[in-house]
# Entry
Amino acid sequence: MLEIQLQPGLEAGTDEAGRGCLAGPVTAAAVILPETVNLPLLNDSKKLTERQRFLLRPLIEEQALAYAITFVSPEEIDQINILNASIKAMHLALEQLALTPEHIVVDGNRFKPFKNIPHQCIIKGDGKFQNIAAASILAKTYRDDYMRELSKTFPQYGWKQNKGYPTKNHRNAIVIHGKTKHHRNSFQLLPKQAELPFPKP
# Structure
């Protein structure tokens, strides 16, 4: 059974999706849940099927006291690195909440203080706390939607299926078609032995 609160009062859970991708934005969500929710399937988004995540999304949005989703672009990821971009995305999501939390719980072990609000980093927190799990589901599903939409313009990269992660098919497509403006130049897009000069996007 997942927990909700570490501290009394309004607590926001935050998480990101897309940190390990070769293409597309990093996406973050922040969620404040009430003390009692009816979300029986709620768990770490990675432990749920795609169908379960999309079934849960409207239920989370309906029951949350406040939630927000934000994106940080590949260009900014290249400028400030993926860790800083992930933290920035979470800060932006917290900034956009309709309510100001009194405490923040963060999935993982790295974070920067936000507005002097107390925070706690929790390794594998998306499998332990409902507000982090809810944030992980929102971040994952909204990013998946973004990559599916992007795939309509760039179908050769298989983003509808791989969502920008470094699958064999995605990397083969980069070898054949080159990179796009949506790829992260600061990431190693291809193994060293497969690197080829990229044509212009």
Observations:
- The mean pLDDT is 91.
- Residues 23 and 164 are 5 Å apart (CA to CA).
- The helical segments are 50-63, 74-80, 82-96, 130-151, 159-162, 168-177.
- Residues 11-151 form a domain with the Nucleotidyltransferase; domain 5 fold (CATH 3.30.420.10).
